Amino acid sequence: MRKLFILIGLFVALVLNGQVVKTSVVYAQPGGSSYPIILDDGNTVMWFAFEQDVTVTGDHVTNWGDISGNNNDLKNVGGTPHLLGTGILFDGIGDYLKTDAIVLDRPEMIYVVLKQVTWTEDDALFDGLTILSAEIVQGYGESPSLAYMGWSTTQTDLVLDTWGILRLNVIDGTSSFQINTVDAHTTTDDYGDMEGFIIGARGAGADAWSNIEVKEIIIRKITDTAPNQTLIYDYLNNKHSLGLSMWLIILLIPMILPKYKKRFNKSLKIAA
């Protein structure tokens, strides 16, 4: 019976961890994790995962390869970002990576898995190569506020040293910025087309360096529908979940319960 419980727990664990094949996913990411097939629809312009295609020279990252197949690599043209076991760390002093200039016009959809290590007002987490075109900035107000450049409102839903998923949809009209599943903030501010991407600093890379750690970046040339955004968000959330995830707890339950059952029965005998 115990073996049966373990097998059931393992099956549930695999389902919740995305390892059981569904119609919405295929296998291809590092470690056998799955991703939504919508990312293969031709609209994924660039895609970076810290576990894959990262070039380290000496002790720092010199190239972060684009795994979308479009060869839009993030290149080191300043600073010494470091590859850690949990992501790529930018020191907030001069570290950043940027792509070459490319044709990347609106609409643009950006998904980034990162955490703020420290907070300094007006430091930029990322941006398009066109300055301010897709900038998420630390500000304005108090830590850990984040804002899309020019917005009068900020979001404080990503506390320091906590991983989160940022979504930015830049379009002609009303753009939106969202942290995890908190309601998105919208704006009609317009700063032009991205024409490339930079992580760790403002568009030109000459200032506003931020102290962040980054796991994964997906950039698409489309405004994803709400269902497709959910698919992509769930993929990133499941892949990068931290701590003892629910699937692991379920897996461990069949192994833990028998021990506590024996202790409980023993306590009953002593009480009797």
As for the CATH topology of the largest domain, it is Jelly Rolls
Number of helices: 3
The largest pleated sheet is described as: 8 strands, antiparallel
User: What's the CATH C level of the largest domain?
Assistant: Mainly Beta
Low-confidence stretches: 3-28, 242-253
What do you see in this structure?
The chain is 20% helix and 31% strand. The chain has 272 residues and is an alpha+beta fold. It has two domains: 2-8 and 247-271; 37-244, Jelly Rolls (Sandwich). The strands form three sheets. Strands 3, 7, 8, 10, 14, 15, 16 and 18 form an eight-stranded antiparallel sheet that branches. Helix 1 (2-16) packs antiparallel against helix 3. It is globular, with a radius of gyration of 21 Å. It starts with a helix and ends with a helix. 39% of the residues are buried.
Topology:
Blueprint: H1 2-16, E1 25-27, E2 34-36, E3 44-49, E4 54-57, E5 60-64, E6 74-78, E7 82-83, E8 88-91, E9 96-98, E10 108-116, E11 124-128, E12 136-138, E13 146-148, E14 164-170, E15 175-179, E16 185-187, E17 197-199, E18 211-220, H2 226-239, H3 246-271
Antiparallel strand pairs: 1-2, 3-18, 4-5, 5-6, 6-9, 7-8, 8-18, 9-17, 10-14, 10-18, 11-12, 11-17, 12-13, 14-15, 15-16
Helix pairs in contact: 1-3
